[in-house]
Amino acid sequence: MSETKIIPIFPLDLVLFPRQELPLRIFEPRYKQLVDDCMLGDGQFGVCLIDEQNSVNGWNSPKLVGTIAKISKCEDVELDGLQLHIETMGRNSFRIKKIIPPALSQPDNYDPLSVEGHQEVSKIHEEIGTQEKMYIQAEVELIPEIDENISLVRWKALVELWKKKIIHQALTSDPSNPHAVNSHALDHVLEQYYLNSDSPTIDYIYSLAALGAKDPNELQPLLEAPTMEDLIESTKELLTVK
């Protein structure tokens, strides 16, 4: 049976893959508390794509598979301490076994970008006790990494699918300019993202898929793929022109 542990959860409108960097600006009181707690602990929290079909006490609910993020740097954006900038790196992916709701529900008409919204949440937090957690936590189990690389032949096949998709999108958006994007220009894009290699790794697949995705929900199946075969099939599905 896999070992489980309890971690803070940060639902976001993105998919974080293992070994990817993720900078974040923190301004909501509940996530400032999350970062403070992480800095006092092992510096780790879970990043999950937002589950738009559900909520937890009125807050954004996480998808059940996410990635551990390790804080490598934390600093104040301004001297007033109202905003933090953190730099993180993706580690293992995990599966949520049990969601632990935050101690307070989302207030009516809550605006996370307003001073009034922050003051309202802070006031409720003081009333229920500042030791209570404002953020979602979860009991999670780590998912074993896919411990193999993709073959060069299969990698090149994925690259060709990606090129066809990007060229198709360019033609669809501007049919009057059939030469707006060409294969040579796309090779340059691959070079910019360090994706030209004779020994591609699993991280190359994640990066290529991110370049081809229009919506973060298209990337979630890749994070959930249990084997290299499943990962390649999910990537083909994402990159194939429908």
Structural write-up:
The protein has 242 residues and is an alpha+beta fold. The protein folds into two domains: 4-142, Archaeosine Trna-guanine Transglycosylase, Chain: A, domain 4 (Roll), CATH 2.30.130; 152-239, no CATH class. 36% of the residues lie in helices and 28% in strands. It has a five-stranded mixed β-barrel with strand order 1-3-5-6-7. The protein starts with a strand and ends with a helix.
Secondary structure: elements and pairs:
Elements: E1 4-12, E2 21-26, H1 29-40, E3 44-56, E4 59-62, E5 65-76, E6 84-100, H2 115-128, E7 137-142, H3 152-173, H4 183-192, H5 202-212, H6 220-224, H7 228-239
Parallel strand pairs: 1-3
Antiparallel strand pairs: 1-7, 2-6, 3-4, 3-5, 5-6, 6-7
Helix pairs in contact: 3-5, 3-7, 5-7
CATH architecture of the largest domain: Roll
Number-wise, the strands total 7
Any idea of the CATH topology of the largest domain?
Answer: Archaeosine Trna-guanine Transglycosylase, Chain: A, domain 4
What would you call the shape? globular
Topology order in helix (H) and strand (E) letters = EEHEEEEHEHHHHH
The portion of residues assigned to helices is 25-40%
Radius of gyration: 20 Å
Largest sheet: 5 strands, mixed, barrel
The separation of the N and C termini measures 40 Å
Strand order of the largest sheet: 1-3-5-6-7
CATH class of the largest domain: Mainly Beta
User: Structural class given helices, strands, pairing?
Assistant: alpha+beta
What proportion strand? Answer: 25-35%
Q: Helical stretch count?
A: 7
Average pLDDT level? 93
